């Protein structure tokens, strides 16, 4: 699909292999980064960071790319294993941004917790409220009264 910018020379082999595989999978989709972002709920700039190895992708982004690429379950599982190995080996940023007071000094990568609607767990069905029940009973009473009054008026 296009020429990728070279990956940094100091990348661990696990990260390099994973990002190269991710790039090939993205190219297989035939989608631009903008289109990929629209289909996966991860922005173009997020995909640029993931595919240029400046930030590890969240597992959900990898799963979404696998789904968009239409790969089978077995290959998707292999991508999951590659992702785990790469994230463990991923180099941490050299500079740590200033943290608010009280925050620990641990560096964490941005992980977009937002799931697209198709990946969100199903919501539990809540029992009907008492108000809904009261409205239903009132409607039944009105219907019965209308039927009785209509029958008396005709009879």
What do these coordinates show?
- Helix content is 55%, strand content 0%.
- It has 155 residues and is mainly α.
- It is built from 6 helices and no strands.
- The protein has a domain of 77 residues: 434 Repressor (Amino-terminal Domain) (Orthogonal Bundle).
- α1 packs parallel to α4.
Q: What's a quick, concise take on this entry?
A:
The protein has 155 residues and is mainly alpha-helical. It is built from 6 helices and no strands.
Total E-strand runs: 0
Parts with pLDDT < 50 across at least 5 consecutive residues: none
Radius of gyration over all CA atoms, rounded: 27 Å
Q: Provide the CATH top-level class of the domain at 13-89.
A: Mainly Alpha
Q: What is the helical fraction, as a range of percent?
A: 55-70%
In the CATH hierarchy, the architecture of the domain at 13-89 is: Orthogonal Bundle
The largest sheet, given as strand count, sense and whether it forms a barrel, is:
none
Distance between the termini: 81 Å
**Alpha-beta content class:** mainly alpha
Q: Please, what is the average pLDDT?
A: 83
The global form is: rod-shaped
> How large is the share of residues in beta strands?
under 5%
State the helix count. 6
Instruction: Predict the CATH topology of the domain at 13-89.
Output: 434 Repressor (Amino-terminal Domain)
């Amino acid at each position: 699909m296009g020429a990728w910018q070279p990956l940094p020379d100091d990348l661990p082999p696990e990260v390099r292999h994973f990002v190269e595989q991710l790039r090939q999978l993205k190219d297989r989709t035939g989608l631009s980064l903008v289109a990929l972002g629209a289909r996966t709920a991860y922005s173009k700039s997020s995909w640029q960071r993931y595919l240029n190895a400046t930030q590890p992708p969240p597992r959900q982004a990898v799963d979404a790319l696998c789904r968009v690429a239409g790969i089978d379950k077995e290959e998707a599982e292999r991508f999951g294993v590659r992702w785990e190995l790469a994230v463990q080996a991923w180099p941490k940023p050299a500079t740590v941004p200033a943290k608010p007071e009280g925050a620990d000094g641990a560096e964490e990568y941005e992980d977009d917790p937002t799931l697209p609607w198709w990946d969100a767990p199903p919501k539990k069905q809540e029992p009907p409220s008492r108000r809904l029940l009261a409205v239903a009973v009132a409607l039944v009473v009105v219907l019965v009264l209308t039927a009785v009054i209509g029958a008396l008026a005709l009879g």
